[in-house]
From TrEMBL:
The lineage of its organism: Bacteria, Bacillati, Actinomycetota, Actinomycetes, Micrococcales. Its EC number is 2.7.13.3. InterPro entries: HATPase_C_sf, HATPase_dom, Sensor_HK_TwoCompSys, Sig_transdc_His_kin_sub3_dim/P. It comes from Ornithinimicrobium ciconiae. Keywords: ATP-binding, Kinase, Membrane, Nucleotide-binding, Phosphoprotein, Transferase, Transmembrane, Transmembrane helix, Two-component regulatory system. The keyword Ribosomal protein does not apply. One of its GO terms (cellular component) is membrane. It is an enzyme of class 2 (transferase). It catalyses: ATP + protein L-histidine = ADP + protein N-phospho-L-histidine. This is histidine kinase.
Length: 460
């Protein structure tokens, strides 16, 4: 029995959903339609003289009552499929015993077939379905045995089949009659079960496909939201690096200008010029980054073009911009140098853009930390390009008390490196000074959206 239940789908842990009001209405219409067809079929058969002595009113009402009661079962074929299949089987056997011509009509045979098919297709308890089908098979065997046991059973079969002559085949007439009726009933019952099971399996696979499609839509929406959040985080980190760097430069230059304003006006003027240039650079970079956000929101409907704003943005900084970064970071109190070491000419230009931007931001954040938290008078940025990319920022100062910060700047450097499977070394040097050294592989793993930024951290 477990094997039968398994074949019927008892292990699938799925059942048909509840019926809708529209489906219930369709079943009512179907039942009415079957009865009308059955009634028409009965009257056509009566006109052909199929019912001998069946013109009495009671006989006519009985015949139509058999057809109506069979059609009525279809109203609940999907709400109570096992009950309907059982009652349809019992109805077939009872009506076939007392109203054989009615039960044997084409419309009623299709109705019984459809009722058993619906029971298999819509049964929600597949294990119970196995017991119902087994009971129907036993009932079929008992009914056939009873038909053949009745003295007039074979004569009725001969008459329904139009048999009048002697046997000419390899089987005796009684054996042939029994075999013919049994074979027809097995094909009738087995066909209904088989097609019903195919229908149930089809509904199961359709439901699974719908669930898979819904899962894919949900995951796609989640990934899309994650990509948006990740892009915004990247832009926020870039904004932090830009603002932290330029504000730090402006603060140092302003302090220097204030100290030498009366003693050395030329030096003060130079420092103020550096503040002006740094502020313009910061505003330009922030505008580009914020424009990226805005272009993502408006590009879908062409709002940028309509507003006359081209999505044209300045390129992201790379290794070639480190020399300018070092010059910009140089102040009256701290000199910054930049050195590029290549294992062969042109190696730096072959470094992937993601790594170049990461190296630039690491150097930018390190120099910002030097200005904010160190007494250094010299700092150096060294980039080595060989089998891997190495960025090293070294200064000769000591920490300024009371400016320890939150540590998010160093965390940002570490996360930038981790995104690209790099290694980070940070710490004080022997004697005085601080060193930040980051090593990045030249073949970083691909990441969605090529995100290469760290968190918006500030200080070490």
């Amino acid at each position: 029995m477990d094997r039968i239940a398994h074949l019927l789908g008892a292990d699938e842990h799925w059942s048909r959903p509840a019926l809708t009001l529209e489906q219930r209405r369709r079943d009512v219409v179907l039942a009415v339609g079957f009865y009308l067809l059955a009634a028409l079929s009965l009257e056509l058969m009566r006109s052909l003289g199929a019912f001998e002595g069946g013109s009495a009113l009671t006989e006519i009402l009985t015949q139509h009552g058999v057809a109506a009661s069979a059609a009525l079962l279809l109203v609940w074929r999907r709400s109570h499929p096992l009950l309907v299949a059982s009652l349809a089987t019992a109805h077939l056997y009872v009506s076939g015993s007392f109203e054989a011509m009615v039960a044997g009509s084409l419309v009623l045979q299709i109705l019984y077939f459809f009722a058993i098919f619906s029971g298999v297709s819509w049964a929600r308890d597949r294990r119970a379905l196995g017991y119902v089908l087994l009971a129907c098979m036993v009932a079929l065997a008992l009914w056939l045995a009873w038909i053949f046991a009745v003295s007039s059973g074979l004569d009725d079969i001969y008459r329904s089949l139009g048999i009048t002559g002697d046997s000419e085949g390899i089987f005796d007439r009684p054996v042939a009659a029994v075999g013919y009726v049994t074979l027809n009933n097995l094909i009738f019952f087995g066909g209904a079960v088989l097609i019903g099971q195919v229908s149930w399996r089809g509904a199961l696979h359709t439901q699974r496909e719908l669930q898979y499609a819904e899962t894919i839509r949900t995951q796609a929406a989640r990934l899309r939201d994650q990509a948006v959040v990740a892009e915004r985080l990247r832009i926020a980190r870039e904004l932090h690096d830009v603002v932290a760097h330029h504000v730090s430069v402006m603060g140092v230059q302003a302090a220097a200008a204030r100290r030498v304003l009366e003693k050395n006006p030329d030096a003060a003027r130079e420092a103020l010029g550096a503040i002006e240039g740094s502020s313009r650079d910061a505003v330009g970079q922030m505008r580009d980054l914020l424009g990226t956000l805005r272009s993502g929101e408006l590009a879908a409907d062409g709002a940028l073009e309509e507003a006359g704003e081209a999505p044209d943005r300045a390129p992201q900084p790379d290794l070639s911009d480190l020399e300018d970064l070092a010059a910009e970071a140089t102040t009256l109190t701290c000199t910054v140098t930049y050195t590029l070491v290549e294992d062969r000419p042109g190696a730096a230009q072959e470094v992937p853009a993601a790594l170049q931007l990461t190296a630039y931001r690491i150097a930018q954040e390190s120099l910002a930390n030097v200005r904010r938290h160190s007494t250094a008078t010299n700092a150096s940025v060294v980039v080595r390009v060989g089998t891997q990319l190495e960025v090293e920022v070294v200064d000769n100062g000591t920490a300024i008390h009371g400016t320890s910060g939150t540590g998010l700047g160093q965390q940002g450097i570490r996360e930038r490196a981790e995104l690209l499977k790099g290694e980070v070394e940070m710490g004080r040097r022997h004697g005085s000074g601080y060193r930040v050294r980051v090593t990045l592989p030249l073949t970083p793993p691909e990441r969605s959206g090529a995100l290469v930024a760290g968190p918006n951290g500030a200080t070490r």
